[in-house]
Amino acid sequence: LGGRRFHPEHLLCNGCSHGVHGETYFEKDLALWCEVCFHERFSPKCEFCNLPIKDRCINALHKTFHPEHFFCCQCGKVFDIGQGFMESDGKAYCEEDFMSLFANPCFGCAKPLLADYVTAVGQKWHRECFGCAECGRILTSDGFFEHDGRAYCERDYHTLSASKCAECGKPVIGRAVRACGKRYHIDHFFCSFCKKVLEVPLGNEASSPGKNRDPGFMTHNGKPYCKPCHTKFYG
């Protein structure tokens, strides 16, 4: 101790004056310290129990902990040495509890959303949870139809949204004929008498004219007719 010599009975702790001859002691600041006084004065304190940390020490959240006192503040699970943790407002959480408390929930399954998710119809979804509200088919964020705030595949959307062919009653998917205040499959828009496929006038949606389609149509009582049949029956 600085080159000085002591009688054994004079080898005393600088803090409590307890004799340390034959016991564990520490030297610091040119003084002797018994184990208790040394740790009380110089060892870091555990944030949880406020007792000195004499052996292994966890440094986290700008604080120090006994390894057994560094745990998830929600579930109490002790973190292993070197194990990662999540932090919020200066508190440590295991990943499961952190996600449960702070992550956005999936609208489909209510479980926490991680990095990869879909935003659609005003909600957030796991990709595997974003499906057609009718048939359950998995959808993509740019490949769905919305009806009444819900997502649908193309076929179910047309079925539910009343976008049906006035002739066959099945969903109209893709291009269609709009005439007489109704919608038709292109090949189902025909003369009400002779059943020839009719061509829509300019300004209506349809495919290019086919060789079997008449150039125009007439109506009577809300029904379409080819020009010859309309002239024959209604002048």
UniProtKB/TrEMBL annotation:
Q: Would you name any one GO CC term? A: stress fiber
Annotated GO molecular function terms are: actin binding; metal ion binding; muscle alpha-actinin binding
Entry keyword S-adenosyl-L-methionine: no
Database matches in Pfam families: LIM
The domain of life is Eukaryota
- UniProt cross-references to Gene3D superfamilies, sorted A to Z: Cysteine Rich Protein
**GO BP of this protein:** actin cytoskeleton organization
Name the UniProt key words of this record, in alphabetical order.
Answer: Cell junction, Cytoplasm, LIM domain, Metal-binding, Repeat, Zinc
Q: Where in the cell is it found?
A: Cell junction; Cytoplasm
What InterPro entries has UniProt attached to this entry? PDZ-LIM_domain (IPR050604), Znf_LIM (IPR001781)
Q: Where is the LIM zinc-binding domain?
A: 44-103, 104-163, 164-235
**Entry's PANTHER family?**
LEUPAXIN (PTHR24214:SF62), PDZ AND LIM DOMAIN PROTEIN ZASP (PTHR24214)
- Under which name does UniProt file this protein? Transforming growth factor beta-1-induced transcript 1 protein-like protein
